């Protein structure tokens, strides 16, 4: 866990060293050093339960009850909370695209936020957005602003806004290849389930005409036909969506 945190700090543009001579800051850093020393001692003696108790005491006692409660008056920022909600929606949208298209996490997106709810100072969160989603925010514009040529549009879940995305040139060919492979796979899936639906529909039609099969068997096959038809139609919709993306990228 410690190694993971150190890696995050090392690669993050938003986490920085704070050099402060304020007595409160010096005190909490001193308490932290003492707590970590005790944790090391307990762990070296194979007593992890005491190490966790030491950490709990530091976090709940020194950090929360004294440092935060006594030395700082925290003011709620409704504007910041709203901007963070928008940012998290952007992260969710970008991650969803990566997952759906099976894109590597290292692939960088560039684009704009189309949203009337974002504050005028939203761009200050751009480094956080890049850390979380590898999204390079170019600008924040109105919801109805025209989408630039060559950009792809995607919605923001739960927000009145959208993103216009553009893939970095170094990843563009790989992105297009992945889209084409995914479209072909969706076409094959649609064809496969269309044939399955047609098979069950033919069985249902035959059984109804002959009248020799029990109703519950016919109902079962009708259900299978509907399910297969639904999968086939869903795959066709995916094909259409990917085709639009490819056309937008080639524009």
UniProtKB/TrEMBL annotation:
This is valine--tRNA ligase. Keywords: Aminoacyl-tRNA synthetase, ATP-binding, Coiled coil, Ligase, Nucleotide-binding, Protein biosynthesis. InterPro entries: M/V/L/I-tRNA-synth_anticd-bd (IPR013155), tRNAsynth_Ia_anticodon-bd (IPR009080), Valyl-tRNA_ligase (IPR002303). One of its GO terms (biological process) is valyl-tRNA aminoacylation. Residues 25-68 form the Methionyl/Valyl/Leucyl/Isoleucyl-tRNA synthetase anticodon-binding domain. GO terms for cellular component: cytosol. It comes from Teladorsagia circumcincta. GO terms for molecular function: ATP binding; valine-tRNA ligase activity. SUPFAM superfamilies: Anticodon-binding domain of a subclass of class I aminoacyl-tRNA synthetases. Its EC number is 6.1.1.9. It comes from the Eukaryota. Residues 176-203 form a coiled coil.
């Amino acid at each position: 866990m410690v190694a993971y945190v150190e890696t995050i700090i090392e690669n993050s543009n938003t986490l920085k060293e704070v050099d402060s001579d304020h007595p409160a800051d010096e005190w909490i850093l001193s308490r932290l050093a003492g707590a970590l020393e005790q944790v090391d001692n307990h762990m070296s003696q194979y007593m992890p339960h005491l190490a966790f108790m030491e950490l709990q005491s530091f976090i709940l006692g020194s950090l929360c009850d004294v440092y935060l409660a006594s030395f700082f008056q925290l003011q709620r920022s409704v504007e910041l909370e709203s901007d963070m909600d928008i940012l998290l929606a952007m992260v969710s949208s970008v991650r969803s695209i990566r997952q759906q298209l099976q894109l590597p996490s290292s692939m960088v997106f560039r684009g704009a936020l189309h949203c009337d709810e974002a504050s005028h100072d939203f761009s200050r969160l751009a480094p956080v957005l890049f850390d979380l989603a590898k999204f390079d925010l170019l600008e924040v514009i109105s919801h109805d602003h025209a989408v630039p040529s060559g950009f792809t549009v995607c919605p923001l879940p739960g927000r009145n806004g959208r993103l216009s995305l553009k893939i970095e040139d170094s990843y563009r060919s790989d992105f297009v290849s992945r889209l084409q492979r995914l479209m072909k796979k969706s076409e094959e899936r649609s064809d496969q389930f269309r044939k399955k639906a047609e098979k069950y529909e033919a069985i249902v039609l035959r059984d109804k005409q002959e009248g020799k099969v029990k109703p519950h068997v016919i109902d079962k096959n009708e259900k299978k036909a509907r399910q297969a038809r639904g999968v086939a139609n869903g795959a066709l919709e995916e094909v259409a969506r990917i085709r639009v993306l490819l056309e937008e990228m080639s524009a």
